[in-house]
Amino acid sequence: MSIKELGAPKLVCGMGINDADYVVMKRETIGYVNGKRKQKTVWVCRYYNTWVKMLERCYSAKYQERNPTYKGCSVSNDWLKFSNFKSWMEKQDWEGKQLDKDLLFEGNKTYSAETCVFISPMVNTFVNDSGATRGKWKIGVYWDKGTNRFKSQCRNPFTGKTEHLGRFDSEQEAHNAWLKRKLELAHELAATQEDPRVAEALIARYSNYKHK
Predict the structure, then answer these.
(1) Are 54 and 143 part of one and the same domain?
(2) Residue 100 domain-assigned?
(3) In CA terms, which of 64, 81, 187, 205 is 20 to 30 Å from 45?
(4) Which string of DSSP letters, residue by residue, matches 114-154?
(5) Do 59 and 9 share a domain, yes or no?
């Protein structure tokens, strides 16, 4: 039997079942327009908000139009029920962090208790290779018209600044310079993580890096 056949009230993003036994969102009236009441949201349960955003990434066509990398993603069957997701999230170190589905298992497209972990914004930014926007060269590589050579650079997550690593005769040499520095930074970032799974995944990702 599918989720839609369970007889639940209105589904969230067409898939999720909000089975919370408490109010997950509070709204207040701010006025009336053409006789219709206009409201705004003044509070949303953090567990519910995280759950809904996860569902949107997987099942909202509008969201995927803006973020095509989420096409093909899905949520595990048990997490389609809010209470199951909330029970898992309550046991996690989630304050100030973001839900991630593919740090522990690179390339994973399913949100589940087995594959997900909460990571800091710094870690999330560090592992995002911006593949859709970085251009035709390998990651970390740019063409320097002034010298007619390839230049390499890498963003330092601690300083927030871009480090220039030099200019090279080949794209591969420039990419290798980026990867060397990226692995050094991955070790430094891993040393600051309390979750050993996150630390190990950071180092493994750039120790066994394959250009995409």
Answers:
(1) no
(2) no
(3) 64
(4) TT-EEE-HHHHHHH---TTTS-SSPTTEEEETTTTEEEEEE
(5) yes
The answer to whether residues 124 and 116 touch, using CB atoms and an 8 Å cutoff, is: no
Rounded to whole angstroms, the Cα distance separating 117 from 102 reads 9
Is residue 143 included in any domain, yes or no?
yes
Q: Going residue by residue through the chain, which has 212 residues, state the pLDDT in tens, using 9 for 90 and above.
A: 344 444 446 899 999 999 999 999 999 888 888 888 888 889 999 999 999 999 999 999 999 999 999 999 999 999 999 999 999 999 999 999 999 999 999 999 999 999 999 999 999 999 997 655 567 899 999 999 999 999 999 999 999 999 999 999 999 999 999 999 999 999 999 999 999 999 999 999 999 887 65
Give the position of tokens 């914004």. 121
The number of domains in the chain is: 2
Q: Is residue 103 part of a domain?
A: no
Query: Is there a contact between 71 and 56 (Cβ–Cβ < 8 Å)?
Result: no
Task: Give the Cα separation of 128 and 109 in Å (integer).
Answer: 15
Beta strands in 16-132 (DSSP E): 25-33, 36-44, 74-75, 98-100, 110-111, 117-119
Model confidence pTM above 0.85: yes
Q: And the tokens for 43?
A: 């509070």
